[in-house]
User: What shape does this take?
Amino acid sequence: MTEHFKMDTPATERRLDDMAQGLVGAPLDRPEGPLKVTGTATYANEWQIEGMAHGVMVRAPGNSGRVILANRDDVAKLPGVLAVIQDDRLLRNPAQGTANEAPVQSPHHAAYLGQLIAVVVAETFEQARHAAQSLQVTFENAQMVQVDPATAAVEPQDGQALDQGDLDAAMRDAPHSVDVVYTTPSHSSAPMEPHASIASWQGGDLTLRGSYQMLKYNRNELADALGIHPDRVRIISPYVGGGFGSKLGLAPEAVAAAIAAQELGRPVSVALQRPQVFEATMRRSETRQRVRLAADAEGRLTGLGHDARVSNLPGESFAEPVLQASHFLYAGANRRMSLELARLHRMCAGSVRAPGEAVGVTVLENAMDELAHEIGIDPVALRLRNIPEKDPESGKDYSSRRFREALESGAEAFGWADRPGVKERREGEWLIGYGMASAARVNVLMESQARVILLPDGTARVETDMTDIGTGTYAILGQIAGDMLGLPRDRVEVVLGDTTLPPAAGSGGSWGASSSGTSVYLACEAIRRQLAKRLEVDEHDLTLKDGRATYANQVKSLSDILQGDEIAKLGHVQPGDTSTDVRQATFGAYFAEVAVHAASGETRIRRMHGSFAAGRILNAKTARSQCLGGMTFGIGIALTEELAFDPRDGHVANHNLAEYHIPVNADVPQLTVELLEERDDWANPMQAKGIGELGICGAAAAITNAIHNATGVRVRDYPATLDKVIAGM
Assistant: This one.
């Protein structure tokens, strides 16, 4: 029996506030943690399957022309080689987020340098790698293609345009204004676990063990790419070693493994090598953003303009949504926004963690800091002064918003009142500065299903194809079920990552925990009603704790109530009117202290604090961990991360973890996180909102604003490497 619920009206019954078991919100450990730290959690490329062959992908050494495998026959004769495959079904690039269908399939024509165009399969990985490296790739009909975003043809994204009031007049008449241009580079998700798949066929049925985030979509994408029915495809992905967006959609290695396994009649493993991860998976688009802010004498915004240029491959529709938060974060009657998409022959752009706000809020928050200095007002005070009563464009109410509290509480926790003036504080050779920025991220509920089974022995099992990409899904879903059914956490088993299970929302967009968690919540509610019916009491008069039911002055164990039966219920949630009736978002604030070396321009972050409001916190430990990760991501955006493209042919020059500089331990100081108490009845019946990506959105701006406070230098071209800082000094 299915418990179906559509989120059309606010869910005001806050049941999780006083559940007797007291699990939801607690800082509980991840149940799979010991498996991960001992190396016994099985990731995609670690399955040992009898008779498995190994495939290595072949990259295009050019960005245009028909691909010719010049010495294919010779390579096929190398020791151990089983096949050299260049099938029409191979993918040109990964599928976008929730595409639900195959992306472009074009292995015979190169669209960008590094595109995966073939797969070589051999008995061992070493033999396959040697053969792939021996393959000579040439091109027919090659021609010059555009690789520079500054000169590429652009396509206006009319659906993203806004023109409200008269921004030109507001800028002209304002006592205070800023008109600034910032640029951000492309970023790579750079997950620790490379993209990998193992494919095996049983007759016409395919099983793929892969590293993916959105299994219900990935199954359809894989089936579409292969030309078979989705019912013939099973994807297994119990553990994902990081994705950050790059594993949202189906990637080339999965299709290559499936084709090779079908052709050879035996299991085939294909894992991308580290350079291929950088070259052939999603990148965050580089951006050029112009922000215009107009304010009256008291610092109240009268105008806000945000215009951006992003890029993608020809044929791809995704455009980095950098304007998302600019629509609702601050007031200002006169508003103009536009987005244009440049067509480049680089690997495709797509969702990298916190698409849009990660770089869009960052630039907006830099501009707000510039405006605060122009006016001579404290940057926190400027933001507090410009929190709108309602959505400044639609006039809708905010579902819940503790933005003001995040700013004020964060400032107090950090000691913002002691902030020095520009270039005012020095400790020996180090210039000390404080900076802050706001955080904002849209909130989304997605359709999701989960089955919960209360077993005869009084334990429970949660089943859904939801994935855990390091976010704590195993812990959170167990906590929800444990609270609702009155069971200790160790008496709830959570089974994830298999498309034979009910289809969940998937891990992406910060909607995973709230959407899949709601489906678990609904299934448990239905089980509670079934228990109450057996006991002939109203379900709300039933208290469940430690495997026992208390009702009408009686206590009975769940196993006694069940009498050998099991109760299985399917929870199914769908978004409804609450997604559009109000403005749903999460909010926060960052504060950072940096030290900049007076002679070299080197920046070191000394401490950083974040205060965040994201509805009900389902697990304080995993939520804090997500915020710490987001702020670390922000450190990378601010100081180190940049995909370097060769301007001649567009290839990635730093396609490895040695030269794509993500923050390491020495770069990350003591980070502190405050999670503000909040409930959002419009979000879902648990009143929870997404938090995974919120910790990134604007974090980099707090750091670069602190660099300005320390040195007086504005770095408007990210990242703020020492050469750019010292040039300004």
The chain has a mean pLDDT of 97.
